[in-house]
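Worked example 2:
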Amino acid sequence: VSLVSFGFKYGVPIDSDLVFDVRFLPNPNFVPHLKPHTGADPDVIEYMKSHAETGQFLDHVYRFVDYLLPQYEKEGKAYVTISIGCTGGRHRSVFIANAVAKHVSEQSYRVKVSHRDTEKKG
């Protein structure tokens, strides 16, 4: 299972099997001390976890992925690419991709995570 975080303003990854849009979540980009960091930074993680909608969304995604992955496996699909997008690909998508990757790896799947747009500025 590949997890890819990305910014919609740079385009959706072409090899995506599933795409989740997380632009509805609170945006750390608008919090001055969080803006220079990514969704892997402890302060951004704390910010994201402090909002109820983040946990609610993750619960839905976990259930959805827990259902889908065995279905893909049963159909003989050897790999799945799950892409998670926010506006710039630096904060929300990175946090969510890392959280989903952790959850999927706990289900005994091999997981690869990449953050396509974290180095892009604006």
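Residues 84 and 96 are 7 Å apart (CA to CA). The two ends are 29 Å apart (CA to CA).
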